[in-house]
Amino acid sequence: MKPPVPEIPVPVWRDFKDLQEWEQLHKERPSGDKHSALFESVTEGIHSFPGGFAVTTVADAFFNWARKSSVWPVTFGLACCAIEMMATFASRFDVERLGMVPWASPRHSDLMVVSGTVTIKMAPMLLRIYDQMPDPKWAVSMGSCANSGGPFRHGYHVVKGVDRIIPVDVYVPGCPPPPESLLNGLLLLQDQIAHFRKTGRRAPPTPKVD
Amino acid sequence: MTSDQARASIGERFSGAQVEGTSPIVATVQPEQWVALAQFVKETLGCRFFSYSTAVDWKEGLEVVARVDNVDDRIGVLMKTRLAPGVSSCPSLVPVYRGANWMERECYDMFGIRFEGHPDLRRILLSDDWEGHPLLKSYAVDTPHPPYR
Q1: pLDDT at A33
Q2: Pairing of strands A111-115, A73-74
Q3: How close does chain A come to B81, measured CA to CA in Å?
Q4: Nearest residue in B to A127, CA atom
Q5: What is the mean pLDDT of each run of 10 residues along chain A (210 residues)?
Q6: A21 or B75, which is more confident
Q7: How far apart, in whole angstroms, are the C-alpha atoms of residue B73 and residue B51?
Q8: What distances in angstroms separate CA A87 from CA A95, A134, A179, B3, one per listed residue?
Q9: Residue A164's closest chain B neighbor by CA?
Q10: Nearest to A156 among B127, B134, B148 (CB)
Q11: Neighbours of A167 (CB within 10 A)
């Protein structure tokens, strides 16, 4: 049986269904997911008080320094990217010098490195582990599969990007990303944490790479 | 027993069957003779090892495939049966080969073939609330699975 020869139209960027889906999804996602209304109203009050900005900004700088110097990733490996993640956590690339201790409990962790393919069957468990982590928490999407579904995007059983389940702070491309790449992603995450504004609001995405 | 003798004996026993090849011997029978063929192949030809079972969606009907082997005499038999268009029910091989149990569950999972006489026919790989059978040609890959897709 001879397959029919498809007529491929000239691709227009806006015509790609995947990109349309991505835009739609990121339009609907709420932005300030790390903020508590009560806490923010209190800090707003202090901030608007005359001279109060000195308190909040110094407190911010201190808290951000503390947060970014002790990011504990939860031990959570999903697929082949987990091997590279383990290499990053091991002695050669040693992220412990950055204050990251891979911790075996989500209840003591701040960071989830989603390393690998997220299947539809695994998605509820991933969400459950993420929900068990205390705020403030961050997520790094590692590898093509977690970023967008990767080679399995047009399959039937893979979640097309982990950002459909949890909010993601840093995307690390690669299949799988080498430890250097993940390390760069983690440094970017630390940079992002350092720019948290007023005790807990999410920083705007910094386009600074390298 | 050699492979040629085995092929001849299958052709002798099942007159309507289409038998060809040597390694493996490809035997295509009607679904009514499916279990009888498996029994014959196991007991007479000594193919005691159930290698795998799967299916093919040819759009004009499903085809159930099973491969069994006689490891001592190096005889491999690929059994096939073609279901009529629109039919998704086939006799189960579990009474003959116990190893067919999970294979047929996977086949049910992926192709929606209901194996008559299977002791525990439910999904094995996909979650229980999955809708549809993804390896069918009629399955749309973009089928939404809320909330994760």
Answers
A1: 47
A2: parallel
A3: 21
A4: B148
A5: 68 66 62 61 80 80 87 90 92 90 90 91 87 85 90 86 86 92 91 68 51
A6: B75
A7: 15
A8: 10, 26, 7, 51
A9: B148
A10: B134
A11: 16
Q: Which two tokens stand for residue A168?
A: 């993601």
pTM (whole model) above 0.90 = no
User: Could you give the CA distance from residue B104 to residue B94 in angstroms, rounded to a whole number?
Assistant: 8
Residue A140, H or E segment:
strand A138-142
Mean pLDDT score, B9-28: 88
What is the rounded distance in angstroms from the CA atom of residue A47 to the CA atom of residue A54? 8
How many angstroms away from the CA of B149 is the closest CA of chain A? Answer: 6
Least confident stretch, A8-17, B13-22, B63-72, B91-100:
A8-17
Contact predicate A63/A69, CB 8 Å? no
As beta bridge partners, residue B41 has none
CB-based contact B148 A165, cutoff 8 Å: yes
Residue B138 pLDDT: 87
Min Cα separation A121/chain B (Å): 6
CA atoms B122, B125, B128, B132: torsion sign: negative
Query: Quick one: pLDDT at residue A32?
Result: 46
Q: Quote the longest CA-to-CA distance of chain B.
A: 57
Instruction: Please spell the DSSP secondary structure of B35-96, one letter per residue.
Output: HHHHHHHHHTS---EEEEEEEEE-SSSEEEEEEEEETTTTEEEEEEEEPPTT--EEE-STTT
pLDDT of residue A64: 84
Cα four-point dihedral sign A30, A107, A66, A183: negative
At residue B42, φ and ψ (nearest 5 deg) are: -75, -45
Burial zone of A15 (CB within 10 Å; 0-12 exposed, 13-18 middle, 19+ buried): exposed
Query: What's the confidence (pLDDT) of residue A200?
Result: 46
Whether A154 sits inside 8 A of B141 (CB atoms) is yes
